[in-house]
Amino acid sequence: MRVVAGNYGGRPLKTLAGKTTRPTTDKVKGAIFNMIGPFFEGGRVLDLYAGSGSLSIEAVSRGMDFAVQVEKDRSAQMVINENIKMTKETDKFQLMKMPAERVLSVLTGQFDLVLLDPPYAKEQIQKNLLEMQERNLLTEEVVVVCETDKMVELPSQIGRLNLTKQKTYGISKISIYKF
């Protein structure tokens, strides 16, 4: 796995061995950013189930100013830290070592890009996005990227967020929401 494009383009990324995380393939990662960008002029990204941190590192590589990465698994946290060091811009990343459910109550500021790839997709995505809206954590221009198994059916609307794009890549489905 590697960073696909931007400032860190081509640099290798570490992944977690085993089945506790499902790393997004380079092909799917490239497709996601082609759907939403592919480049940014600043902003904050929230990677709520960070895994290896690959998606938020890609977002910063492509122009986001800062990424908050949330991961509760200790092994994954070590991989994220190594991947952050690879960027040589560690000040652009904050790793929060706690469950996603807990982090939403302590986060401050607003996010322009939200990346969601939770283990139990449908229930978690709806719950997380409703709470983010209640807590005013999303900018009016926010783009929310949800990565799920292709069999998961997400609603066309979650609170004020509307499903704007959806594509299937192999076993993964990418759903994009905006206000």
UniProtKB/TrEMBL annotation:
GO terms for molecular function: methyltransferase activity; nucleic acid binding. InterPro entries: DNA_methylase_N6_adenine_CS, RNA_MeTrfase_RsmD, SAM-dependent_MTases_sf. GO terms for biological process: rRNA methylation. Pfam families: Cons_hypoth95 (PF03602). This is rRNA methyltransferase. Keywords: Methyltransferase, Transferase.
